[in-house]
């Protein structure tokens, strides 16, 4: 039952995440015997699934098998590969936006629009929290109008690149980091502000970042994984322990059950 039970739990985790209302995803680089691989994370408040892969994008995400079946709200940090999945609704991590806005303010000639946008996002987050997790329609629309004015007024501080002297070059003209952020906040307004209209959508993707943090600790201590199979074993153990913790199962008991070939009640039911 031990190995078989572990596979049952892995399959159950994928199934539970695929049908959840909100799912958080993230990825981080890992060292596999000197080669860069990626550890992918999919999680919600009750389930966690980790998977290592040599790729970061859609090839890896498809091989995991959760996101192609997911139809809920996907919280992420704007990795473009996630936007290839149109069967779900997207919500962007505003913790990332706040950090990037700080960078624009500190490193790009104190662009005022970045300071204004950061203050507004934090104000909306406080108002949403005070309102119980979701704003009323009228208040939401007022904030949305204020939000839209900032990118409009930012054109002078962060103009688009000059495309008149390209001399036959193909492709998109390179933008500055400030311009890329400005265009993203304008284009993906709905995904940035989704948290204020749906109480189940958080302001940040911190749940995924917290879940994946132990991998960083492991990499700092061990330095690398010696093989892909070793990375997979680590991911199976971490997925199991993280899920047990979220389900209220004591981790010592969870390990004892694992070695006895037993499944926790939440999995066996």
Question: Could you explain how this protein is built, in words?
Answer:
Residues 167-176 have a biased composition (Basic residues). This is Transposase IS66 central domain-containing protein. The mean pLDDT is 91. Helix 3 packs antiparallel against helix 4 (112-130) and helix 4 runs antiparallel to helix 5. 52% of the residues lie in helices and 13% in strands. With 269 residues, it is of the alpha/beta class. It contains eleven helices and five strands; from the N terminus they run H-E-E-E-H-E-E-H-H-H-H-H-H-H-H-H. The chain has a five-stranded mixed beta sheet with strand order 3-2-1-4-5. It has two domains: 2-91 and 205-268, Nucleotidyltransferase, domain 5; 94-160 and 175-196, no CATH class.
Outline:
The protein is of the alpha/beta class. It is built from 11 helices and 5 strands.
Q: Layout of helices and strands, plus pairs?
A:
Blueprint: H1 2-18, E1 22-32, E2 35-43, E3 48-53, H2 58-64, E4 73-76, E5 89-92, H3 94-107, H4 112-130, H5 137-153, H6 177-187, H7 189-192, H8 206-222, H9 228-246, H10 251-260, H11 265-268
Parallel strand pairs: 1-4, 4-5
Antiparallel strand pairs: 1-2, 2-3
Helix pairs in contact: 1-9, 3-4, 4-5
Domain Transposase IS66 central: 12-232
Pfam families: DDE_Tnp_IS66
Protein name: Transposase IS66 central domain-containing protein
